[in-house]
Design goal:
The protein is α/β, with parallel strands linked by helices. The protein has 15 helices and 5 strands. The chain has helices spanning about 10-25, 40-55, 65-70, 90-100, 120-130, 150-155, 170-180, 185-190, 195-205, 205-220, 230-260, 265-305, 320-325, 330-350, 355-370; strands at about 30-35, 75-80, 110-115, 140-145, 160. α4 links the parallel β2 (about 75-80) and β3 (about 110-115). The chain is globular and about 65 Å long.
């Protein structure tokens, strides 16, 4: 029988474990999901939240399940580091103060902490007592790459749930099975989404995102002969296109808030507004990461051609531009260009202006790949 855990692709043991927790009414209050990026930890956390809040153990159809699935449930809180180096003490203290408040709609609340490895000593100390003895109506889920990267005092207070690494070929196959798209299109989506299967499933269903991928690759193919002004115009275009889907998200959030405003207290409205703001920030980050992931995939294809393994390129629909770039550069330069993308991702994570990040990235890639001088 289908349930919300069917969306946790590629993790059969995790699905089995979480289903058992729900079926046996043995949901704990602290969990640590560990696994590499793309292993579906976030999707699993939200599926678990659906099952916890749903009166039918995760039917996927009720109002609570739908709201959680759409990332709009006021009793499911997703948190990410508030500072460049990790979680802020003030951020954790605010969470600790809010955890004691009653749920708005459901019988329980779920708090999901992304990048728990960035929960440093001082922030962790402010959180330990709450994690050890949260209110009875609160479940806390931490997401991290490895248990070793997280403070032992945090790990010891959680049930650790390990997620397996999903190879790209298997991930693409899962996308094909769940969407019916061609294997090649699934591969493109996996690359654009940094290996995340759940994001790739959404990606292949969105014609605008597919068109965006095509445009990013076209811009990469044109860099060699573009002057500074043309590069800056391309960068501006990419940022605008990356942000375009946020308008629809913003309108939907406002419409839903207005529809429920009469039934909510002012404090609840402020909490939902804060959640909506955080959700927009996460979406913006997601689309920017897709931009840099597509750029990285094109550069890796150039690297494959330079190293004599052209049969391993991913973006087979732009082989001409990849071959042309490879003919004008070498392995060392492509490797340096890939490091520029890594630097850009770090800058975006540190909340540097996206416009500045993409401007600098394209100019630096052009200079590094083709040994040109930039006036930027």
């Amino acid at each position: 029988m289908a349930d919300v855990f069917d969306s946790v692709y590629g993790q059969p043991l995790v699905r089995q474990y979480l289903r058992a927790c729900i079926a046996n009414h043995q949901v704990g209050q602290g969990y640590l999901f560990t696994g590499l990026a793309g292993s579906n930890k976030t999707q699993a956390a939200y599926a678990f939240a659906q099952a916890i809040l749903c009166e039918k153990d995760g039917c996927g159809q009720c109002d609570d399940c739908v709201r959680v699935m759409r990332r709009k449930h006021p009793d499911v809180h997703f948190l990410s580091p508030g500072g460049a180096s990790g979680y802020l003490i003030e951020q954790i203290r605010q969470v600790v103060a809010e955890i004691g408040l009653a749920p708005i709609r459901a019988k329980k609340k779920v708090y999901i902490f992304d990048r728990a490895d960035l929960l440093g000593t001082y922030a962790a100390n402010a959180f330990l007592k709450t994690l050890e003895e949260p209110p009875d109506d609160v479940v806390i889920i931490l997401l991290g790459r490895t248990a070793e990267s997280i403070l032992p005092t945090i790990v010891s207070r959680c049930q650790v749930v390990p997620f397996r690494h999903i190879p790209a070929s298997e991930a693409a196959g899962i996308v094909v099975q769940n969407t019916g798209v061609s294997e090649q299109r699934a591969v493109y989506a996996i690359e654009a989404c940094g290996g995340s299967i759940s994001e790739a499933v959404s990606f292949v269903k969105d014609t605008e995102r597919l068109a965006f991928r095509t445009r990013v690759l076209a811009i990469m193919g044109s860099l060699a002969d573009a002057d500074d002004m043309q590069v800056l115009k391309c960068a501006s275009e990419l940022v605008l296109k990356a942000k375009a889907p946020l308008d629809a998200v913003r309108v939907a959030q406002q419409a839903e808030l207005e529809a429920n405003a009469d039934f909510l207290a002012n404090s609840a409205i402020r909490r939902i507004e804060a959640q909506n703001k955080n959700a927009l920030a996460r979406k913006a980050s997601l689309y920017l990461r897709q931009t840099t992931a597509i750029i990285s995939s094109w550069l890796r294809d150039v690297l494959m051609v330079c190293s004599g393994t052209a049969d391993r390129i991913i973006n087979v629909d732009v082989t001409d531009s990849v071959a042309a770039a490879a003919a004008r550069t070498d392995i060392s330069r492509v490797s340096r260009a890939l490091r520029e993308v890594e630097d850009c991702d770090r800058a975006i994570a540190y909340n540097v202006s996206p416009e500045t990040c993409i401007d600098v990235l394209l100019l630096n890639i052009r200079e590094v790949l083709y040994d040109t001088s930039s006036a930027y």
